[in-house]
Specification:
heterodimer; A: alpha+beta; Beta-Lactamase; five-stranded antiparallel beta sheet; 51% helix; B: Rossmann fold
C-alpha cells in the first residue's frame, strides 16, 4: 500500500519557517533546511546563493539513511546527529523523528553553538511536524478535494507542457 | 511519499528505477537529463564508483508542469544494481511513490532480471509496500542488441500484474520518456484516489 501524502498547509509552513529563521540567527548559521527523511525538502531559510537545496535535501536523506543503517549493524537505533566539517563550510544534521534539521555554517559560527541551538529548537520543530502529520492524516478540506477531481486530461496535459 | 506543499504550491513525488547491474537505470536518467530543458530540471547527482558503476544512487529532480495550480515535481532515483549493494538498495526504496523495473533484454541476463525482481518484491515488502498495488512499469531495455529474448517471452517471465510494458533502447532514448510518463501517470492517479 502506498503511504498517505504529507500535506503541509500555509499556516504550518510559515510557523516552521519562523522557527528556522530564529535558529539561523541564534546559531549564526548561513542556511537552515528542514528535510523529510525520504529526501523531500520541507522548508529552507538563509543565504541560498547558488546552492542547490533540492540536491542537498536528497543527499542529506541518503547520508542519514546510510549512517542509520550502520548504526543498526552495531546495535544502535540510529545516530541522532551528524557533523561534516570542511575548511570553510560545515554541515550539522539532527534527526528529529521523521525530519532532519540541516544547518550549514561557516567560520562565523562554531559546531558547539550550532549543536546547542539545534537541540534547543528541536522540540518545537518536532511539535510543528507532528501537526503537519495530523493535518495529513485528516487530509480533508477544499484543497485536497481539488486533487480528487483531477481529470485524466489534466494529467495527460502535464506531459504536453514538458 | 508524495509531499504536497500548499504554501509553495508544489507536489513532489519519488520514482525509483530498479533492476539488475548494467541494465541501464542510470542511462535512463542520463537521457531524461540530457533531453530536458534546463528550467525543468535540477542537477543530476551520481554517487558512482571510479568505474562509473552506481555506488549509492543517482538523483535528479524533474518538473513536469502545473496541475490545478500546483507545480508537479518528480524526484527520480536509481538504485545500485550490483547484488552486494543490497543494504543501499533497500534504503532508497523508502518513501517511494512509483517504481520502474528496467529489465536487460539480453538472453544471458534473464536470470539476473528474475533475481532482481524477486529482490524488489522483498525490499518493497520490508517497507510495507506491495508490488501488486504500487504504481509500476516494466521496461524492456537494450532492444537494439543482437542476442535479445523476444519481448513476449520476457514479459511472460517478468510480468507481475497488468503493468505497462515499454520496449526501450535507453542509450538512444527510445522508450525512456514513454516509461516515465507511464509511471508518473499512475502516481498522479493514485494521488487522486487518496
Amino acid at each position: 500500500m502506498v503511504q498517505m501524502p504529507i500535506l503541509i498547509r500555509e499556516q504550518r509552513y510559515h510557523q516552521i519557517k519562523a522557527l528556522l529563521a530564529r535558529l539561523r540567527i541564534d546559531a549564526a548559521a548561513r542556511l537552515v533546511v528542514l528535510v523529510e527523511k525520504d529526501g523531500q525538502q520541507i522548508a529552507v531559510h538563509g543565504e541560498l546563493g547558488e546552492l542547490d537545496t533540492t540536491s542537498l535535501a536528497s543527499l542529506v536523506a541518503g547520508n542519514v539513511a546510510a549512517t542509520g543503517g550502520m548504526a543498526k549493524l552495531i546495535g544502535e537505533k540510529e545516530f541522532p546527529t551528524l557533523s561534516h566539517e570542511g575548511d570553510k563550510e560545515s554541515i550539522h544534521i539532527s534527526v528529529i523523528g521523521r525530519v532532519l534539521l540541516v544547518v550549514v555554517f561557516d567560520e562565523r559560527s562554531s559546531l558547539g553553538l550550532v549543536k546547542l541551538r539545534s537541540k534547543q529548537v528541536s522540540q518545537e520543530l518536532a511539535a510543528a511536524f507532528a501537526e503537519v502529520e495530523r493535518d495529513s492524516q485528516l487530509g480533508t478540506g477544499a484543497a485536497t478535494v481539488a486533487f480528487s477531481e483531477i481529470t485524466d486530461e489534466e494529467i495527460d496535459s502535464l506531459f504536453l507542457q514538458s | 511519499m508524495t509531499f504536497i506543499n500548499y504554501a509553495s504550491k508544489e507536489i513532489n513525488c519519488k520514482i525509483v528505477y530498479y533492476g539488475p547491474g548494467l541494465c541501464g537505470k542510470t542511462t535512463n536518467l542520463q537521457h531524461i537529463y540530457d533531453a530536458t530543458a534546463p528550467q525543468a530540471k535540477g542537477k543530476l547527482i551520481s554517487l558512482a564508483t571510479e568505474t562509473d558503476r552506481t555506488l549509492f544512487f543517482d538523483f535528479m529532480p524533474l518538473e513536469l508542469g502545473t496541475v490545478r495550480g500546483f507545480k508537479t515535481r518528480f524526484h527520480l532515483y536509481t538504485v545500485p544494481g550490483q547484488v552486494f549493494y543490497e543494504a543501499s538498495r533497500k534504503l532508497i526504496l523508502k518513501g517511494v511513490d512509483g517504481v520502474v523495473f528496467v529489465a536487460d533484454s539480453q538472453e544471458e541476463r534473464m536470470d539476473a532480471n528474475i533475481e532482481s525482481l524477486y529482490n524488489l518484491d522483498e525490499n518493497l515488502r520490508a517497507h510495507g509496500y506491495d508490488l501488486m498495488k504500487i504504481p509500476y512499469v516494466l521496461q524492456l531495455n537494450k532492444r537494439d542488441l543482437p542476442n535479445i529474448i523476444p519481448a513476449p517471452d520476457i514479459a511472460a517471465e517478468l510480468l507481475r500484474k497488468d503493468e505497462p510494458v515499454v520496449e526501450a533502447v535507453a542509450s538512444t532514448g527510445v522508450g525512456v520518456f514513454d516509461t516515465l510518463k507511464a509511471v508518473a501517470k499512475q502516481v498522479l492517479t493514485e494521488l487522486r484516489k487518496s
